[in-house]
Task: inverse folding
């Protein structure tokens, strides 16, 4: 029997995941908050839905949540108001899922829940965020893990790069950017999709996974070369190490048996591809 997966938030990552899962034979429902994007989803073979959970209004077709697995990939926006209301949004999404057939939830989280603690951090470490966004995401994780009607896996991505997210643009032209020796914690879209698909295909729910490429060169090394690759003005960094963290993602390899497609950022930069 063909399983249905609902992807809540068909943005940069969500749309790429939805298109990949289609190739695996799943029926895919995809949501957007923009009417302009509905025909784009339909053209891709994704059943399109207009879904919105905001403080002002909640608008969705219950049929969207009539699926076996729900992927939630709607990070809080940068505004403080959106970050403050994010846990409430997740609560309302849980209510919608509870009223339907959802058995599993994959929640796309962030390694920002850990904060910079000047150490290596794994899934066994208690999150201790130091940003409003990280604190909102930590609350959202707790809400989802407390749900009884479905099993949730938390997937914490590092910094996202790939097509449309060129790391060479992040620091281009900056002068004396701080913390040049800090290790990077990044993941390419290819591995985002690969790990997500592995979770769904193996029904690995009820877990917490970190997802970062297991190579952490210094920020000044990685971003200088990335900027040169992009043909932009290279940044300068202060050669210092202040607040930092290294995200350990071993569990995605041991539990999921996932092999990262990108294992060395220096080699990846030398290839010059996004």
Result:
């Amino acid at each position: 029997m063909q399983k249905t997966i609902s992807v809540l938030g068909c943005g940069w990552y969500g749309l790429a995941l939805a298109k990949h899962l289609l190739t695996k034979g799943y029926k895919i429902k995809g949501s957007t908050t923009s009417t302009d994007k509905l025909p784009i989803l339909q053209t891709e073979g994704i059943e399109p839905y207009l879904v919105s959970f905001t403080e002002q209004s909640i608008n969705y077709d219950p049929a969207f949540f009539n699926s076996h697995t729900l992927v939630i990939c709607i990070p809080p926006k940068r505004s403080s108001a959106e970050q403050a209301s994010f846990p409430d949004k997740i609560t309302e999404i849980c209510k919608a899922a509870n009223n339907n057939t959802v058995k599993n939830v994959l929640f796309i989280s962030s390694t920002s829940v850990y904060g910079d603690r000047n150490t290596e951090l794994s899934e066994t470490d208690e999150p201790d965020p130091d940003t409003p966004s990280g604190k909102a995401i930590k609350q959202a994780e707790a809400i989802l893990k407390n749900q009884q009607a479905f099993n949730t896996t938390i997937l914490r991505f590092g910094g996202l790069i790939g097509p449309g997210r060129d790391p060479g643009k992040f620091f281009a032209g900056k002068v004396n950017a701080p913390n040049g020796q800090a290790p990077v914690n990044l993941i390419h879209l290819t591995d985002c999709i690969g790990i997500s698909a592995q979770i769904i295909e193996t029904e690995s729910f009820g877990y917490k996974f970190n997802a970062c490429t297991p190579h952490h060169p210094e920020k000044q090394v990685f971003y200088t070369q990335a900027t040169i690759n992009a043909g932009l003005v290279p940044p300068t960094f202060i050669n210092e190490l202040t607040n930092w963290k290294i995200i350990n993602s071993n569990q995605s390899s041991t539990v999921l048996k996932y092999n990262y497609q990108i294992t060395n950022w220096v080699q990846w930069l030398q290839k010059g591809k996004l």
User: Anything to note?
Assistant: DSSP finds eight helices and 13 strands in the chain.
